[in-house]
Amino acid sequence: MADKVRVIDRGGAAGTAPPFPPKDTRAASPPRRSGASPEAGVHSPAQRREAGWRDLLRFRARARADVELAVGAAGFAVVLGLWLFLTEAGLVAGQFLPSPFDVLAALYRLFAETGFLSDVWISIYRVWVAFAIAAVMAIPLGILMSAYRIVGATTEPLIDFIRYLPVPALVPLTLIWLGIGELSKITLLWMGTFFQLVLLIADDARRVPKEYIETGRTLGARDPQIMRDILLPAMLPSMVDNLRITLGWCWTYLIIAEIVAANSGIGYVIWAAKRYVKTPEVFAGVLVIGIIGLVTDQAIRWGHRKAFRYLG
Amino acid sequence: MTAGENRFLSIERVSKVFWSDRGRVPVIDDVSLAVEEGEFVVFLGPSGCGKTTLMRMVGGLETPSAGRILLEGEVVTGPSREKGMVFQSYSSFPWLTVFENVRFGLKYRTDLSAARKDEIARHYLDLVGLAAYGDFHINRISGGMRQRVAIARTLAANPDILLMDEPFGALDAQARERLQVQLLRIRHAERKTVIFVTHDVDEAIFLADRIIVFSARPARIIRDIRVGDRLAGERTLETRDSQDFLALRREILAIIRDEAQRSEDLMVAGGMG
């Protein structure tokens, strides 16, 4: 048990990232077009294809979208292959590492027999409600923190303090205060994300070039108008990136919340399966979280590219 | 000092001091200057000399440490629509189209109808020659066009004075030349008072009615040159090859060289003392 607690703790620490974690540069870079290399159009298709693959090795080069996709899929394939090899060759006992087929079977059992879909929904619901509340509160507060020192100076030290509290350590408190209902889980997720998010958003607002603000001033804009018409649209692309990254952290806390005190949700199902050493079910649960994460992340990135075409 | 109340723009014994980790940094040292309505005044000086700071004080974006600035008889206390500003970079908003950027200049006017705002925005878009690009986003147009967008937006707000902070500083030589010619044309059409900051001597002579040459930091006025009196006739690209232009250029470069030498001597002497 002590081991497990440490593992959980690390999960919390990973969420408590440095004040401004390095930006996911892939998200920040403008959408790349296929054949964006200068050679495109001049060389034959065969040469171009080759150049597409070579770009992967060139320092800070951009690769073609299809090449990137292929390489990304290959990454999954390698892991899957290794997994298959280890289990099919009988190198690892099934209760430690079940074969992919066992996991697929478990996945089917979960959805078909035990109503896992409702657990998935309740988990998604918890994450999104907590995240939405955190975002709705963090966006105006973050902007105000950057705009007025009175807000920044009073809230920043407090937020910094709370931000470094490991979320799992707050579980007992949320249970004592709020019981084991939805409210305690949503509060826990909110605490894990809000305090991180508000600082990220304040920083996004601070990075808006002062020329934009001064342009607004010389055109007669007052403070609220500058915040609404200039700060917000100027910071929006980087803010959406930060929301996307924070949403990922939210899932980390969800599992903690559901393992400790819940009788529904993906985390609960994983934990219940562990109790009976149903390792394939544990894997299936983890896999579902990974897939949800991947799909959400890609969807937001896609939306980002569509909405902020003007950055390209 | 009451004379300032009759002038269009009056800078009266203005000094500016910044405070850094090492203490007091004087940026502008007791500068006085009067500008007439409709004048095109260029602030010329070495990079970092404080000429931009002086212009920003006229715009109300900085406050003088000493002295005062009067625009049309009133002390400048902060930024306002009367003092339009064009920056070198981040001059237009990337999330808006070209047309929306120009129209933004009128966004906070409550005395105009939406239709009238559209009309004015279109007029200025046309004036800077970007009527065909109204629906483009800023990332799709060149650096020179972006500066024209900023100029159109600022003019649409109908300021009394146009303050330009090295607006063509980031452009290549060809675009720069084109923009300079266009700026003169626009300025003749609009009859605005302009303060234009640059460190480019050719640009200064080509555009100015009057060049104020500043010393290295802290900025003092070392020469006030009435270019208008010495460079008669309409300014065209050929003006740059005229004898009058070249004579002015030689003269100003000599002033700047002397000043650079002097400030270097001062720095060495100061360092040894």
Walk me through the structure.
The complex is a heterodimer of chains A (312) and B (273). By secondary structure, chain A is mainly alpha-helical. Chain A folds into two domains: 33-93, no CATH class; 114-312, Orthogonal Bundle (MetI-like fold), CATH 1.10.3720. Chain A has helices at residues 2-15, 25-28, 45-54, 65-88, 100-113, 116-147, 149-163, 167-178, 182-206, 210-218, 223-260, 266-275, 279-307. In chain A, helix 5 (100-113) packs across helix 13 (279-307). The relative contact order of chain A is 0.12. Residues 1-41 of chain A have low confidence and may be disordered. Chain B is an alpha/beta fold. Chain B has one domain: Rossmann fold. In chain B, 37% of the residues lie in helices and 23% in strands. Chain B has helices spanning 51-58, 98-104, 114-127, 143-156, 173-190, 201-207, 227-230, 243-272; strands at 9-20, 23-35, 40-44, 66-71, 74-75, 83-86, 161-165, 193-198, 210-214, 221-226. In chain B, helix 4 (143-156) runs parallel beside helix 5. Chain B is globular, with a radius of gyration of 19 Å. The two termini of chain B are 38 Å apart. The mean pLDDT of chain B is 89. The chains are: A mainly alpha (312), B alpha/beta (273).
